[in-house]
Fold each of these.
Amino acid sequence: MSLPKETTVTCDQCHKAHPFTAWESLNVTLDAECKQQLLKGQLTQFTCPDCGWSGEVLYPMLYHDMEKRLMIWLWPAEGDPEAAAMPSPSSILDNCLPQ
């Protein structure tokens, strides 16, 4: 299971805030279509509905591919991630197990 989180992004050009879906956890084995969207940059791309400005939104994400036995914690900030910013162990395990 993947964990989308609704957040707000402020446009760099017109400075208006808009809703944006960030993914705390992305299990590409269970949500295969999301893998292609991520690779195309669609899950990190924001386009302002007011002025049309477009840019990349960087955010932490746990990427998990069960078939390849691969799990990557994407952390775009400098330094080590804060423990509070990481998904809880129970949510990680829930994401690993097929529903």
Note: The two ends are 8 Å apart (CA to CA).
Amino acid sequence: MIAEQKILGGECSILPAFQTEQENNYDTLSVNELIMSCPQSKESLSRLYVMFKESVFSIGFSVTSDYHLAEDCVAETFVRLTQVRNFNPDRGDGRGFIFTVARNVAMEIRRKYKKSCNNPVIQSYGEADKTVEDSIFINQLLKELNDKQRQIVVMKVCLDLTFKEIAKIMKTPESTVKSRYARAIAILKKKAGADSEK
């Protein structure tokens, strides 16, 4: 994992560090309960928003490659959580459910704005110490990946999801996710010149 983070420009610099302390310390049971109470409780929605807004943004950005569309993805994802009817807290992981909703929303947004998403550009935002050169370098690296590879790399490296969780979110066999990730990392290593460091 450390090698992958180096290739991507340091401490997960494809995007800002998206995991907040609150999200790292979440309790599956409490997340499930918050999802169930979202339609009736603004407080539950607010707590989920604070816990997951940055992770939802990173998923939206990995799909759309557009900062503003990723922001739209965040808003629409949390609107949809207020309309949840089919979540069973006994059968599911709330975090995975939220990420699945976010990816589905991002795919819908990308289809709607397909022309503007055809040329992915990594925009410079986030921490002040990010340089223009880093953004350009990361942009060039990610252009080498196809949509699915880029999504898998972001979910694995930035969100620290397991291959099993990514497979569930993408509705793809785990073995396919692993092979796409391996292929993506090989492409990134080659393009970043990491092969010569071995």
Note: The longest helix spans residues 42-64.
Amino acid sequence: MKQLIKGATLASFLIGLGDYVLLKIGTPLGAFLFALGLYGVCMLGANLFTGKCGFILEDKKWRDLGIILITNLIAGWIIGWLFSLADPAIHEAAVAKFNSWDLSLGFFLRSVFCGMIMYIAVKCYKLGSIWGVFIGVPLFILAGFQHSIANVITAGAAVNWSWTIPLCVVGNFVGSVTIAWLAEATPKAKKKNKR
């Protein structure tokens, strides 16, 4: 459990660095630089909920996923709060972003779409390509899709909390698992399962 928590804290910090840059300089450049956060997560084998949940169909590690999620949320909020102390401009940008969230079907669906992209990005990395990460992350940011762990970091930087975060967690999970489940039916996946 100690290793899971350490890996999840590391993942929150790496995504936090990406979120800090995005809040500091905005899009489009911040969206591309944010990708380094997910690349670091993949390269260092850190535990990021949105990068792991689609693989639950393969590994069935529900307890581990729960620990990762809780750690990502707590560590992410604290990291965001520390960012707000480091730079007032980050706090102001985070408050503006935070105030744009709402408990709506649209917000939920944007979370689902982000989960889909996250699964594809991490799957690409596992198959030996970094392009999923460096295309996928800017894609979900520029499209306005919602990433639960980045959002909790933003909430921490805004020194606030929103019920949109649990909604986003569910949406990310649904999107990621849906793509993973659909991918199981592809000829390539079937061929791999026969080995």
Note: The domain at 2-194 is CATH 1.20.1080.10 (Glycerol uptake facilitator protein).
Amino acid sequence: MTPILAGKILWVLTVVGWYVIRYPFERRARRNRVARTRRGVPETIRMLISLSGLGILPGLYVATGFPRGADYSPSWLQIGLGLLVMIGALALFRLTHKALGKMWSVSLDIRERHELVTTGIYRRLRHPMYSAFWMMALAQTLLIPNLVAGLAGLVGFGILFFSRIGPEERMMEETFGAAYRAYCERTARVLPGIY
């Protein structure tokens, strides 16, 4: 097996792991009514850009090798680092879903009887699910030996993150007021002690 093939297989396993973790929460979330939402055209565009970078472009590369002109030869060390980051990302992704439980939503939604989750992984980070996605995008960069398809996750998710974080935090502050402001003062967004 070559490092290129190993990287592709591990990327596919990342996608499968992501789906296996998310699916039960997505099914449960459909049962909980949404009280307020910020879904709409801007949110749909953000989600499509992120999906393109984290799913469509790398999936196309794994399936067809396109775009070939941006390929490079990865080392086994790079693939090993990608594996470690992938495992960390999926573990963090699972912790976020478990902590959120029925408060989880794929989009900018406030559920009926929504509660501010500040326990578990949310004790130190306001957006650990975004931290997990940043790690997935980094794992993709390490596992997919193509400068376009590999980096697409960082670009696609970066666009979603930086255009969504402000509206999401405003929505949380509108919903939870002083409790959310106090929570913001004692937590970082995605990287403990830094940001």
Note: The chain has one domain: 3-186.
